[in-house]
């Protein structure tokens, strides 16, 4: 990835529905094989991105970003209510902790100054954890029982290849790459007031594919850009490379030190929900920002409205693509996430609809030329 570009990746929920469906049908070994093939598909997509970039202009990426943000709202509310499967899901104590956390983050982000403003989410999580202690939501027993150091093992599970599983995951990887383009565009537009260059996007996609290949060989799961972090980047405007390096070091340390992992897992679900709900809203608004930069023309409204309707609609109606005669792979790919059908529909509609006359030329958020001054360096001083 280009030097100084703000992005942070990790194991993502974006793959979870498809992985659950494929893993339940074929087993974990086939899942790892499909993950490896998906990584290769991502690398090829990144290599040839300059050839296919016309399929994902700002209209498409803005639509996908909007859908990503809206799709994350139930996740935040689920966290605030206590987390799926919790014994007291929806209880008043969960909402007290979640709403107090949200209030602290909101107050610091909008009325705080300096470090308090920039670290609003961090301080909100700390205060939220303190508030959660009297409610019995913080348990340190797992920290005490966890080990200090653990290295990953090479191929701890057998890797098998199944054509159907590989094709399914290959398609999912392409759609997640479209989501990645949207995440990168939102982070760049919100923090540097420009769209990412072809080199930056292509590098990010290839990096994601390489990480997926390595992850499959050590029994891990694939990564993608964290939509939550896009909102944090946009909210704080902090894009200093040392900040991202420090965050990456925390990820690495948590993976190698089980005690640190257990410490991070102590954060109660309502605290996470209260701290992230405003972040998810920021993602949605950045999708709108990208959409309106060239004007909400009738063509743009058509692409946006229909794509979001298909994406959100299919995701909200469980089993809508799993009826008699419907191929299972259709339900696996398009029926488990709002992002995939939305992205596919946006690409198709944008390709088949004729361009409008007198469309305003793009004046803002233009990519910088490779070799020119990069906005990612402005916070390094």
UniProtKB/TrEMBL annotation:
Keyword presence, Membrane: yes
Protein name: Nucleobase:cation symporter-2, NCS2 family
Similarity field: Belongs to the nucleobase:cation symporter-2 (NCS2) (TC 2.A.40) family.
Subcellular compartments: Membrane
Any GO MF annotation of the entry: xanthine transmembrane transporter activity
One GO cellular component term noted in the UniProt record for this chain: plasma membrane
Alphabetic keyword roster: Membrane, Transmembrane, Transmembrane helix, Transport
Topology of the protein relative to the lipid bilayer: Multi-pass membrane protein
Disordered, as annotated region: 358-381
InterPro entries in the record: NCS2, Xan_ur_permease
Native species: Parafannyhessea umbonata
Chain segments annotated as transmembrane: 30-48, 55-73, 93-111, 118-137, 157-176, 242-265, 271-291, 303-323, 329-353
Pfam families given in the database record: Xan_ur_permease (PF00860)
Top-level taxonomic group: Bacteria
């Amino acid at each position: 990835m280009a030097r100084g570009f703000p992005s942070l990746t990790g194991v993502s929920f974006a793959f979870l529905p498809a992985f659950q469906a494929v893993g339940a049908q074929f087993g974990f070994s086939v899942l790892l094989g499909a993950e490896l093939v998906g990584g290769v598909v991502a690398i090829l997509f990144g290599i040839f991105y300059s050839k296919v970039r016309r399929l994902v202009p700002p209209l498409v990426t803005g639509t996908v970003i909007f859908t990503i943000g809206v799709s994350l709202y139930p996740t935040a509310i689920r966290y605030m209510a206590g987390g799926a499967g919790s014994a007291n899901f929806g209880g008043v104590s969960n909402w007290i902790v979640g709403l107090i956390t949200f209030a602290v983050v909101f107050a610091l982000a909008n009325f705080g100054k300096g470090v308090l403003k920039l670290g609003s989410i961090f301080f909100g999580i700390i205060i939220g954890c303190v508030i959660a202690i009297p409610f019995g939501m913080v348990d340190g027993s797992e920290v005490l029982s966890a080990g200090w150091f653990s290295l990953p093992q090479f191929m701890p599970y057998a890797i098998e290849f199944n054509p159907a599983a590989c094709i399914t995951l290959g398609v999912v990887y392409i759609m997640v790459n479209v989501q990645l383009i949207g995440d990168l565009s939102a982070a760049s537009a919100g923090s540097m007031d420009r769209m990412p260059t072809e080199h930056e996007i292509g590098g990010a996609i290839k990096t994601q594919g390489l990480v997926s290949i390595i992850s499959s060989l050590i029994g891990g799961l694939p990564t993608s850009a964290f939509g939550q972090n896009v909102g944090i980047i946009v909210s704080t405007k902090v894009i200093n490379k040392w900040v991202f390096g420090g965050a990456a070091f925390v990820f690495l340390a948590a993976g190698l030190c089980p005690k640190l992992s257990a410490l991070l897992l102590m954060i109660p679900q309502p605290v996470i929900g209260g701290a992230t709900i405003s972040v998810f809203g920021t993602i949605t608004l950045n999708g709108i920002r990208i959409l309106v930069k060239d004007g909400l023309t009738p063509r743009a409204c058509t692409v946006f409205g229909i794509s979001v309707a298909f994406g959100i609609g299919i995701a909200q109606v469980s089993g809508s693509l799993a009826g008699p005669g419907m191929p299972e792979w259709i339900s696996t790919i398009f029926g488990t996430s709002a992002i995939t059908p939305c992205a596919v529909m946006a690409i198709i509609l944008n390709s088949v609809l004729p361009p409008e006359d007198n469309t305003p030329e793009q004046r803002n958020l233009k990519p910088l030329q490779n070799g020119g001054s990069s906005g990612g360096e402005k916070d390094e001083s």
